[in-house]
Amino acid sequence: MKFVALENGDPMEIEVQRHGSGYRVRLDDRWLEVDLVNAGRFVRSVRLEDGTQVSLVHHREGAMHHVTLGGATFNVEIIDPLSLKRRRVEDEMGSGGVVKALMPGRVVRVLVAKGDAVRKGAGLLILEAMKMENEIQAPVDGTVEELFVDAGQTVESGGDLVRIG
User: Fold this and answer.
1) Cα(66)–Cα(75) distance, integer angstroms
2) Both 111 and 158 in a single domain?
3) Do 7 and 75 fall into the same domain?
4) Which of 38, 42, 63, 136 has the least C-beta neighbours within 10 A?
5) Same domain, 95 and 74
6) 31-70: per-residue pLDDT in tens?
């Protein structure tokens, strides 16, 4: 599984793979092999590939993870990479702009028409990608100024979908 961890707004790519009885974990460009053993509700014992063993205390509140590892405490937000990309797009759009496809797919259904007023989070269209239907939502409040796609049309990653003004 791939994730992005944000600590104080700084992103770090994380990938976790099962490996025998433990895990292979990639932190940015560095791979570690670790074994985890539950030692309580929030406590785990972590053994690294060099034999070092440390305690890990983990508590989760939504996407926020509070982790204490070997005496150091980290407050980290774990998000999926697509969600991070969506946040960047929302930040770039400000009060309006073009909503783009974050992945290639096929437009299943268009939920708005030119001239419709939309609120942030309102569904604009349904995009089928990787055998899943994804509702593409308005990243800002505004008015639909232009539709660049129709139902049944395929789009590439980065393709224009809707202009909101």
Assistant:
1) 5
2) yes
3) yes
4) 38
5) no
6) 999 998 888 888 888 898 898 999 989 888 877 888 898 7
Let me know whether 41 and 62 are in one domain.
Answer: yes
Q: What is the pTM of this model?
A: 0.49
What phi, psi does 96 have (nearest 5°)? 170, 175
Query: What CATH number corresponds to the domain at position 91?
Result: 2.40.50.100
Three-state DSSP state, 131: coil
- What pLDDT score was predicted for residue 94? 47
Residue 3 burial by Cβ neighbours in a 10 Å radius (0-12, 13-18, 19+)? middle
In whole angstroms, give the CA distance from residue 132 to residue 152.
15
Residue linked to tokens 């407050």 = 75
Helix (H, G, I), strand (E, B) or coil at 159: coil
| CATH number of the domain to which 51 belongs | 3.30.700.30
Torsion-angle region of 163 (φ positive above 0: left; ψ -120 to 50: alpha; else: beta): beta
d(CA 143, CA 96): 9
Does 74 lie in the same domain as 10? yes
How far apart CA 152 and CA 37 sit, in angstroms, is 49
How far are the Cα atoms of 9, 11, 29, 71, 141 from residue 119, in angstroms, in the given order? Answer: 26, 29, 39, 45, 4
